[in-house]
């Protein structure tokens, strides 16, 4: 494959994942009935890990954090800004959902044996991280040329410069 083909795949995968996270946010941010505690309360394999997060006192904070994390990740991927950060955040969220849906060795239902769409999406997020997908028609390329980024190693890593 040519480098143009790789760039096109990086752009398409970035936009597809942006849509996935923004669509998830649309069902959470503007939905008063969405609750992280309700979602995590039905875990099976890792119930002991997730049960403490279902406390009523934590629910509004975790629900807010998860809902707006989806939105922030989606917007970041859409704009191509801080894609390395958002792709890793997306990867972590997706792995959490994968374990939360798990009833070992099945994920969500008996049609998904060990691997389901969460693992596929997490793999795409990992690809976006290593492909520097924010540099393909994204704002990471612009940000990497800013003087503050060029003179700061930490910021260079965030935009993949």
Would you give an account of this structure?
The protein has helices spanning 3-26, 36-40, 47-50, 59-79, 83-100, 117-130, 139-144, 147-150, 153-159, and strands spanning 102-103, 106-107, 109-113. A 3-stranded antiparallel β-sheet has the order 1-2-3. The mean pLDDT is 92. A hairpin with a 1-residue loop joins β2 and β3. With 161 residues, the chain is mainly α. It has one domain (3-133). 64% of the residues lie in helices and 6% in strands.
Summarize the structure.
It is built from nine helices and three strands, in the order αααααβββαααα. It is mostly helical and 161 residues long.
- Count of DSSP helices? 9
Question: Level of helix content?
Answer: 55-70%
Question: How do the strands of the widest beta sheet line up side by side?
Answer: 1-2-3
Cα end-to-end separation: 24 Å
How many strands?
3
Structural class: mainly alpha
- The overall pLDDT average reads 92
Largest sheet: 3 strands, antiparallel
Write down the overall geometry.
globular
**Cα-based radius of gyration, to the nearest Å:** 17 Å
Series of H and E elements: HHHHHEEEHHHH
Low-confidence stretches: none
Beta percentage is 5-15%
Number of domains: 1
Notable features of this structure?
mainly alpha; 64% helix; 9 helices; three-stranded antiparallel sheet; 161 residues
Layout of secondary structure:
Elements: H1 3-26, H2 36-40, H3 47-50, H4 59-79, H5 83-100, E1 102-103, E2 106-107, E3 109-113, H6 117-130, H7 139-144, H8 147-150, H9 153-159
Antiparallel strand pairs: 1-2, 2-3
Helix pairs in contact: 1-4, 1-6, 4-5, 5-6
């Amino acid at each position: 494959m040519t480098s143009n083909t790789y760039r096109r795949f990086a752009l398409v995968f970035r936009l597809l994942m942006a849509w996935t996270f923004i669509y998830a946010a649309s069902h959470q941010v503007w939905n008063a009935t969405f609750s992280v505690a309700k979602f995590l309360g039905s875990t099976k394999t890792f119930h002991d890990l997730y049960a403490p997060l279902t406390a009523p006192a934590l629910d509004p904070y975790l629900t807010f954090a998860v809902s707006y994390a989806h939105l922030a990740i989606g917007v970041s991927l859409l704009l191509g800004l801080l894609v390395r950060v958002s792709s890793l955040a997306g990867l972590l969220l997706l792995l959490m959902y994968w374990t939360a849906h798990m009833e070992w060795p099945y994920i969500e239902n008996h049609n998904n044996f060990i691997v389901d769409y969460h693992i596929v999406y997490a793999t795409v997020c990992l690809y976006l991280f290593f492909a520097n997908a924010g540099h393909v028609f994204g704002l990471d390329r612009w940000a990497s040329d800013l003087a503050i980024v060029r003179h700061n190693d930490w910021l260079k890593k965030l935009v993949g410069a």
